[in-house]
Every structure is written in structure tokens, then in C-alpha cells.
Amino acid sequence: MDIIELIKEKSCAPDLLPGSKDECLKNLSRLLSISAEGLSEEELYKALKERETLGSTGFEDGVAIPHAKVKGLDDFIISIAVSRKGVDFDSVDGKKSTLFFTIVGPDEKPQEHLKILAQISRVSRNINARKEILHAPTSLAIKEAFIRYTGGLEPEDKRKEKNKLLIIILYENRYFDDIIELFIEMGIEGANVIESTGINNLLTNIPLFSDFLNFLDERSDVSKTIMTLVHESEISGLVEGIEEIIGDLDKHSGAMVMALDVPFMKGTLKI
User: Fold this and answer.
1) 3-147 adopts what CATH topology?
2) What letter would DSSP give residue 171?
3) Fold designation for 163-261
4) Nearest partner of 145 among 160, 130, 159, 155, judged by Cα
5) What pLDDT digit, counting tens, does each position of 55-81 carry?
């Protein structure tokens, strides 16, 4: 599945009409209905509206990601729309939403839905991507701007490869959510997270070393150890994604990544 193929140019708009949140959902449903064969604007509106009752999909920085699972759809449809004046979309930061990524898809493909949400979320947090999409003058320009900031989703029929145990030790918890989001984007369906401690916490009980603790370059006494199984060919992409989040690992003292061979495996980390 390639996310680029799911974005329908005819369902993108650089000039979404202003109005209330409800009116906005109707306008977004109308855009989607252009590409959703066999589904009416009203059916799409009802699905998006029901999802909004569970909690607003208006996030920070003017970004909203309305989404819903819809019976009768064979594949996902993504629309990108810009509202110049903005819409009061009950966003997390209380500001008007100006950039709308709308996703509808089959109700029996939750994992694919998560992957799409994760990738759009990462692109939408890129300030340069937001600026370029917001200033795109046409539907085609909107899609092209998005393409420049995404490499698409991994194909589902990956060839069988040797598994590796990927271990990430992370002291800066502010990066944790982004790393888990990266996992979802890359199709990793399960991981084990252990609360762990650094050497500072261990040395506090040893009087000999207590005077020297301030010299240790530890970001925190508490860390998270994340373990997951990945295909061998995925490691470089994962490390690259992690470094995009936290910076060069060789220069960063708050994180470490390692990959180990798995000679035997039985069971799964999937929930």
C-alpha cells in the first residue's frame, strides 16, 4: 500500500469554505465523495461526525486529521484541504484549524489505518511541510507538496527475512511517543517497554561515589527500554527515523540502539 496512491487529487482543495465545524465536516465529506464510488456524501459525513463524538481530531499548529472507518469501502481515500480563514475545530491548543487531512477506509483494516494516521501525523508536524501545503495554489500542488515529505508506506508482502531483536534504551521520555508512532508507521505491530534505571540511581546508595554523581552525564535516573522484533532490512530505516526524532545517536548521550540476532523465536508481541 502506497499512501501517495490513496491521496486523490480531485478530492484535495486549496480553498475549503469557511464555516462551523459541522459545516466543515460536510464540506470534507463532499470532497471525499468525489472519489468514493458507491458512497454518498451523507454516509461519509455521518461516519466522520460519529468519530468526532469520541473526541476532536483537531490537533496543534492548525492541523486536523478527521478520520473514520466506513462500511462499503474497499480501500482508503485521503483528502487534503486548506482553509485560509481557519475553522474552529475544537483543537487541542484552542486555535483554528487551517490544514485538514481527512481519511476514510474499510472497517476491517485497523492496522493499515494506524499506519496511515502515523505517517500523516509525522508529516503534519514538519513545519516546512505545513507551510508548503498551506501555500499550494492548486489541488495538484497540494498533493505534490505532501509527496515531497513522505516516502510512502512499506508494502504488505515483504519477503521473509531474518529477524533481529531491536533494543532502544531511552533516557529522554519526551521522544518516546514519537518513536512509538514511528513503529506504527513502519508496520511494527508489537513492542515490549520496560522501565529501567541508569547508573546514577544505583550509585546513590554507595557513599564512596556520592560526591561524584554530578559529573556523570546522565539525562535522567529513569529510562525506558523498548524491545521489538524487526526484519533485518528495516533496521537502517528505523535508525534513520529515530535519528530524525532525537538527533545523531553517536552524538546523543540520552539514547542507544542495538540489534541482536534471534536464533529461536516462538510466539508474538502483537496485542
Assistant:
1) Mannitol-specific EII; Chain A (3.40.930)
2) S
3) Alpha-Beta Plaits (3.30.70)
4) 130
5) 999 999 999 999 999 887 889 999 999
